[in-house]
Design a protein that fits this description.
The chain is mostly helical. The chain has a single domain (5-193), classed as Tetracycline Repressor, domain 2. The chain is built from ten helices and no strands. The N and C termini lie far apart (54 Å).
Length: 194
């Protein structure tokens, strides 16, 4: 039976969705093409009709995950509260691709690293636009610092095997970002209440 163009697009979307989820959950090395295709409900043989290699899939999956997670709306305070939460910490498979994959990306091929770089740049640009009007003249600097603090906190919270310390890292980073005197500039009423 011949596959339509619409079905090909849907199959590709399913492959990317499952690959990005599995890579975030388990890491690049722990996930094989066969596992991705099985999770997508497709046969292993169909993979090469969409991607030239696992490395090609990695680059596209990073782009897919970045696009998927960046579309979640809400104001900056709500975003920070959601990002620096126990639910996000515990849900790596559906969470931030940067926090899940950044430490390993330096070992990946150039296309995967380029896709990650584009995603990082895009997120920093979006964060700079979302910062409150009261932020100083150097919005980009504030955005970079805020983004780095968010990702670093999430990585550390996931790494700690002490639940109290993990929760403290998330809570104190949210408070630090909301602090008018020492925080990174992402100061909104919503983050102060978090």
């Amino acid at each position: 039976m011949r596959v339509t163009q619409d079905q090909m697009r849907e199959n590709r979307r399913r492959i990317l969705s499952e690959a990005s989820r599995l890579f975030r959950e388990k890491g690049f090395e722990a996930v094989g093409v066969a596992e991705v295709m099985k999770a997508a409900g497709l046969t292993h043989g169909g993979f090469y009709g969409h991607f030239s290699s696992k490395e090609d899939l990695m680059a596209h999956a990073i782009t897919h995950a970045t696009t998927e997670t960046s579309g979640r709306g809400g104001d900056l305070g709500e975003f920070l509260a959601r990002y620096l939460s126990p639910a996000h910490r515990d849900g790596a498979a559906d969470g931030c691709p940067m926090a899940a994959l950044a430490a390993d990306i330096r070992h990946r091929p150039p296309p995967a690293r380029s896709a990650m770089t584009v995603g990082i740049r895009t997120q920093i640009d979006r964060l700079a636009e979302a910062l409150p009007d009261g932020v100083g003249a150097d919005r980009r600097r504030e955005a970079v610092g805020t983004y780095a603090a968010m990702i670093g906190a999430l990585i550390l919270a996931r790494a700690a095997d002490d639940p109290a310390l993990s929760d403290e890292i998330l809570r104190e980073t949210r408070a630090w970002l909301a602090d008018e005197d020492g925080g990174a500039g992402a100061r909104t009423d919503a983050t102060r209440r978090s």
